[in-house]
Design a protein that fits this description.
Layout (H helix, E strand, L loop, with lengths): L2 E3 L5 H13 L4 E3 L11 H6 L7 E4 L2 E4 L1 H12 L9 H31 L7 H21 L16 H13 L7 H11 L2 H8 L5
Parallel strand pairs: 1-2
Antiparallel strand pairs: 1-3, 3-4
Helix pairs in contact: 1-3, 1-6, 1-8, 4-5, 4-6, 5-7
Bound molecules: glutathione.
Length: about 210
Amino acid sequence: MLKIHGRDNSSNVQKVVWALDEMGLSFERIDAGGAFGIVETPEYKSMNPNSRVPTMEEDGFILWESNAIVRYLAAKHDNGGLRPSDPRQRADADRWMDWQQTTVAPAILPIFWGLVRTPKPDRDAQAIEAGCKAMLPLMQIMDNRLADYAFMVGDDFTMGDIPLSIMVYRYFSLIADRPTFANLESWYDRICARTPFKRNILDIPLT
Ligand SMILES: N[C@@H](CCC(=O)N[C@@H](CS)C(=O)NCC(=O)O)C(=O)O
């Protein structure tokens, strides 16, 4: 049985369980990280020396790094679907996934930590404001892209939409005072209409 180690409110775990749900694959999710601890134990560290979630375990094959796990699972189970088979489309999906990790996630981090994980009196308003400022050009890049495409890679939903959707969900949920991004909002409505997104992201409290 495929096992995914990681708490269900982690954005990186959510990428993986959402992808699995999209593909209709069965798996066992085992709580780890955050309040569950476990990630510092020698057993966990032997699978993932970073003490981070998620970690995938599949018949002795261990994989960490959420986007790598999504790519692996999509390659194995949904090539030509979640993972585009055309090399250029696939590179495009990979590009948006990498951009989420390297650029969007660091921008949203101070917003998320400030507003969700930090008690009100301890919040760093300047850091939250800086995060909001950093997010604007990134959301504009997505909005421009989505002027021409229904999804990040073209007409169809692919793995390229998964990591970014979770970032946009957090941004839209936490920052009401933002400019209108019409194309991005239409895309987000299409994402929200997907049952696996609702089940694995929208229905999980933002904590
Ligand atoms: N680049 C890694 C980042 C993993 C990561 O930072 N995960 C966070 C949760 S989103 C974590 O493990 N935090 C510590 C914890 O939950 O105990 C990935 O994409 O898998």
